[in-house]
Amino acid sequence: MSDADHIDVPELSLEDFLVLEDDRFTPENVCLVTGAASGIGRATALAMAANGLTVVATDIDEAGLDGTVETAAELGVEGRVETVAGDLREDVPEIVEAAADHGTVAFLANVAGMQHVDPIEEFPMDVYDAMQDVMVRAPVELAKHCLPRMRERGFGCVGNMASVHGHYTTADKVAYNVAKFGLRGLTQSIAAEGDGDVRSFSVSTGYVKTPLVTDQIPETADQRGVSVREVVEDVMLGQSRTDEMMAPAEVANLFAFGFSRHASHLNGGDLRFDGGMTLTYE
């Protein structure tokens, strides 16, 4: 098996998505999804549209957002996918306002992420700051602007893309580790202040077949002085009890479940789908 066989990003199909019966999954309710130009963000946008919601997909990558809309049309999802291009470091209020133009913002999926691989003593602080802005500050600010709209509607839910790195850490990813722990703190803070009407949850997975992951494999291989194959099999999956990385649609389905009526008691909790990485050992 070649290295590429391990890291191909899978194509999405309508059959990949979990479709649930929920009277809140309707066109007048909006699900705002960040990082929606590719990977888990794109899959989550499509999954929520497949469930009949109006989805507002946002990202800094306008071409990628166009690709998400094209994929939605190709798959024939039930709900609409609208887009708003914006920078999460500067444009959060405007992004939420644009989302509200399409209906009531009832669901927020904070998926956007970044990665950089370097040991702490060599980690560039400008990169660290950018990662915290996108993965921690922006989700807090998005929640700040979305929560009043959810309360006015009488219900709402915020889902945050955490990680196994929000439970335990690996070397050379200090900014990512800190951000993912921070997202779990945000999740619990929203639950503490939601008064039962607004819920929150986080999703923690192992490695997923997305561009964010596949792009970091060669860099990790260089950092550790090993091959790409060894990064995938030993570094990424070495602690897992599964031999395949998750597909983006599998992660998107966790958001669909978490937002749904079936998860009414999921509030402040974390959906950890990590193949046994954090709770088992050999």
Helix content: 40-55%
Tell me about the biggest sheet?
Answer: 7 strands, parallel
- What structural class is derived from the secondary structure elements? alpha/beta
Helix-strand sequence: HEHEHEHEHEHEHHHE
What's the domain count?
1
Show unreliable segments. Answer: 1-6
Counting copies of identical and different chains, the oligomeric state is single chain
Radius of gyration: 18 Å
CATH architecture: 3-Layer(aba) Sandwich
CATH class: Alpha Beta
Task: Give an account of the 3D structure.
By secondary structure, the protein is of the alpha/beta class. It has a single domain, classed as Rossmann fold. The protein has nine helices and seven strands. The chain has helices at residues 3-7, 39-50, 62-75, 92-100, 125-153, 174-193, 211-224, 228-236, 248-259; strands spanning 29-34, 54-59, 81-85, 104-110, 156-161, 198-205, 269-273. A seven-stranded parallel beta sheet has the order 3-2-1-4-5-6-7, with helices on both faces. α5 (125-153) links the parallel β4 (104-110) and β5 (156-161). α2 packs parallel to α3 and α5 (125-153) runs parallel beside α6 (174-193). The protein is globular. Mean pLDDT is 91; it is low at 1-6.
